[in-house]
Structure formats: C-alpha cells, structure tokens
Amino acid sequence: MEYIRKWMIIDRFRARIAAFIAVSAALTVLADLSTAPPASAAGCGQFAYVANLRNGTLSVIDTRTNAVSGIAGFDYPAGVAVTRRGTRAYVTNRHNNTVSVIDTRTNTVTATITGFNDPWAVAAAPDGGRVYVTNRLSGAVSVIDTRTNTVSATITGFSDPYSVAVSPVGGRAYVADRLSGTVSMINTRTDTVGATVTGFHEPYSVAVSPVGGRVYVTDRGDSTVSVIDAWTGTITNTYLGLHDPYSVAVSPYGDRVYVTNRDGGVVSVIDTRTNAVTTIDGFHDPVGVAIAPDGRHGYVTNPAAGTVSVLDIRTNAVTTINGFSHPLGVAVA
Predict the structure, then answer these.
(1) What stretch of H or E contains 34?
(2) Are 200 and 226 in contact (CB under 8 A)?
(3) N vs C: which end of the chain shows fewer Cβ within 10 Å?
(4) CA distance 168 to 207
(5) If you write DSSP's letter for every residue of 248-316 in order, what string do you get?
(6) CA angle in degrees (0–180, nearest 5) for 171-159-167
(7) Using CA atoms, how far apart are residues 39 and 33, in angstroms rounded to an integer?
(8) 29: left (phi over 0), alpha (psi -120 to 50) or beta
(9) What are phi and psi of 35, to 5 degrees?
C-alpha cells in the first residue's frame, strides 16, 4: 500500500506540472497576441529559423507557404533558439564569438552580444529571462541576461559542451559534454552545476520532455538514445539500433521523440508510450531538428544537400525546400 500511495503522489505531481504547462502556454499566446502585430504572428509557429553556416545568413521559412526569406549579417552561424513566447531568436556566431538577437516580429537583428569563445548551441529559459550558450573552445556555458543583453554568468568545468536544453518548467538546464561522456545538470536559479550523469560515450544532443520528467540524449559513440529521469538523475532506458544519431527533439505533448540519423539519412521516431521506434526516410545527412509549437510539422536540416525537410507529423510525408547554405541549427517561433 505504501508503494501505491507513493506512485499516486507522483502521478498527481506530474499532472499538476502538465496543467501548469498548459496554462503557461495559454498565457503566452494571449500575451503575444496583445503585443505583436497580426502580420508577424510571433509565437504561433509561423516562422522557422535556419542558421546557414557557410553564407552567414539566417533563413526564415514561412511555415504556411514554405516560402523562404533571409536575414544577413551573421558570421558562421550555427545554433538558433527562440523564446517560448516566440518574440526573440538567438543565433550563435562561431567566427566572431558573438550571439545575435533577432526580433521575430520584424525579423531584424536588434542586438549583438559579445564575450563568447566558439559559441555553438543555445537554449532559452521558459520565462525568457535567460539564454544559455555553450562555448566549445573554453569548455564553458555562458548565461545571457535577456533584459540587458549581457553575459551575467559563466559556468566552467566542461570539456566540450556540445548541446544545451532547458527544462520547460524551469529550474534546470542540461548540458551534453561530448568529450567527457557526461550530461551535467545546471541549477538555473544559482547557475551552478549540480549532478552529473555518467555512462555515455559521445553525447551530442539533449532535449527535455515538456511532461513526464524525461531527458533524451543522443550518443553518437554507440548509436543510442538514452533517457534520464529528471527527478533522480539516473539513466532509465536506452534505445539501440540507431545510425549515428545527432539531434533530438520532443513533441509538444511529450508523446513522440524525433532523432536525426546522419548515416542512414532517416529520422527515428520514438513512441514514448510504447517505446516503439520507427523510421522515416527521405532525408540526406540530417542534422538539426525542431518541432513546431502546434506539433503538426517538424523541420530537419540537411547540411550536405543544402536543404531543409518539412515533416508532416500526421502523415510522415516529407517536403524538401532548397536553397540553403550548409544549414545547421533550426528553431520554430
């Protein structure tokens, strides 16, 4: 009976978290509709942002028509992230060691933040107040205060921080450290490293489920995807049989996990309810992946082909958009 009571408490706690996420998302939409001009529809999934590493641009895909426009002025852009409200995007520039801030309502660069060292991955906190950036050369994670557009903290002690993700309910950020084979948990209230999860070979990408307290990590060293229990910091499951898994993204409802496989030219789909893994063909050396806020479409970058694939989540149909220049990071606002 004591065992059953404990699980009932956990289930009620998780249900409250899910309800909190739903209410927060609703408030976010209302806030954006009250401040953003209707033409931009910021935060509604209207635009997908793609970092083009080679030509120094950020492509903007209109998700309604798949028409592509561009923003110039970047320097080897690699990573891109958007705030939960979708009103700002952040782009890492590897060559000049800066992060660019884009107003997604006008699609213009409004600020350039300095003080990085080979900035690579980027992720925004759910309240939009902080943005986390990995610095591969210095082995550090920088914290941007979005109110002042300055670096407010630097978290050191990593070997090659390759990816970062922030919990949708706040409190923690997760960093995949490629060379050390670990995933570190950052307390976002204190900006210090708490627990470190070991047991990986070459972790590349990390994503946090919006429900259920699960963290997903791709491991290129052994072609697996591992699941970390966010409450205990332990690995609870490992999916085998992938083909050089690179990036990972979770659907808005947490029921599907999407993984790009560079070797196979496929995207693996993990059903988190049944643990079944299926594959979708039609990609070419896929790297980045992002799911739209409404969960209807996914966007996958194919650097070698210079294309972005649009995945219809309901039918698994793939549409290819041409005209990119070694596209890497992708995010939807």
Answers:
(1) helix 2-35
(2) yes
(3) N
(4) 10
(5) EEE-TTSSEEEEEETTTTEEEEEETTT--EEEE---SS---EEE-TTSSEEEEEETTTTEEEEEETTT-
(6) 15
(7) 11
(8) alpha
(9) -115, -30
Could you tell me the two tokens for 169?
């309910």
CB 194 within 8 A of CB 167: no
3-state secondary structure 170-191: CCEEEEEECCCCEEEEEECCCC
Cα-based angle 40, 46, 50 (whole degrees, multiple of 5): 105
Six token digits for residue 314: 């309901």
Q: Give the amino acid at 171.
A: G
Nearest in space to 308 (alpha carbons), one of 297, 293, 323? 323
d(CA 119, CA 116): 6
Check if the beta carbon of residue 87 is closer than 8 Å to that of residue 104: yes
User: Is the CA virtual torsion 101, 102, 105, 106 positive or negative?
Assistant: positive
How far, in Å, CA of 208 to CA of 215, rounded? 4
pTM (two decimals): 0.87
d(CA 122, CA 90): 7
- pLDDT per position in the chain (333 positions), as tens? 333 333 333 344 343 333 333 333 333 322 232 223 233 444 678 999 999 999 999 999 999 999 999 999 999 999 999 999 999 999 999 999 999 999 999 999 999 999 999 999 999 999 999 999 999 999 999 999 999 999 999 999 999 999 999 999 889 999 999 999 999 999 999 999 999 999 999 999 999 999 879 999 999 999 999 999 999 999 999 999 999 999 999 999 999 999 999 998 999 999 999 999 999 999 999 999 999 999 999 999 999 999 999 999 999 999 999 999 999 999 999
CB atoms under 10 Å from CB of 2, counted, come to: 5
φ/ψ bin of 265: left (φ > 0), alpha (ψ from -120 to 50), beta (otherwise)? left
Q: d(Cα 88, Cα 69) in Å, to the nearest integer?
A: 17
